[in-house]
Amino acid sequence: xxxxxxxxxxxxxxxxxxxxxxxxxxxxxxxxxxxxxxxxxxxxxxxxxxxxxxxxxxxxxxxxxxxxxxxxxxxxxxxxxxxxxxxxxxxxxxxxxxxxxxxxxxxxxxxxxxxxxxxxxxxxxxxxxxxxxxxxxxxxxxxxxxxxxxxxxxxxxxxxxxxxxxxxxxxxxxxxxxxxxxxxxxxxxxxxxxxxxxxxxxxxxxxxx
Length: 209
Known about the structure:
The protein is an all-beta fold. The chain has a single domain, classed as Jelly Rolls (Sandwich), CATH 2.60.120. The protein contains no helices and 20 strands. Strands 1, 3, 8, 10, 11, 12, 13, 18 and 19 form a nine-stranded antiparallel beta sheet that branches. Mean pLDDT is 74; it is low at 1-23 and 202-209.
C-alpha cells in the first residue's frame, strides 16, 4: 500500500454566493494554491467563521489537458477529502464545483473528482477520473448527468472522496453524518503523495467550504 495521494476540493468553474456583507478575509493558512493551464486565474480566502471562498477563471477540466484553480495540501496515506458546498451561482458552460484527489501537481496527472454542476439550469452531481497519466478524463456514469445517478440538486450539500489503498469512492451527504456512495469504486495507482484543495474552471466562480 502506497503512503500518500493528492487530495483536493475542486471548484470546476462555480461561484458561491456568500451574501452582501462578508467578514474580513485572509489567506487560508496551511494550504497552497495552484493554477492549472496558462489561461487560469484564481484566488482563495477564508473568513473569521472558517468559510472558504475560492474564485477561479479558466478553460475546462476535461480530456487530456487540465484547466482549473485549486487550493491544496499534500496528504500521506489513506484518508478522505470533505467539504460542504453552501451556495453556488449560475455559471458559464460546464461550470462545476466539488472535491478532487490528484496524483501530483503535473498536468495531466491521474485524478478522481466529484463535482456540482452550476450552469444553464443543469444542477447536480458529476464525477470523473483519469487512471493513467496522459489519458483523457472518463465520466463515472453512476454519478453523471446522462443516465447515471445525479444526487441532490439542492444546496447545501456535503462532498467526500475516500481513498483506501488505490481505491477511490465519492460520497454525498445532506448533513455530514450519513454518507451515500454516488460513484463506482475506481482503482488506479498513484505516487507516494497527493494534493488536496479547492478549485475552479471555465469561468469566474466562488466556493464556500
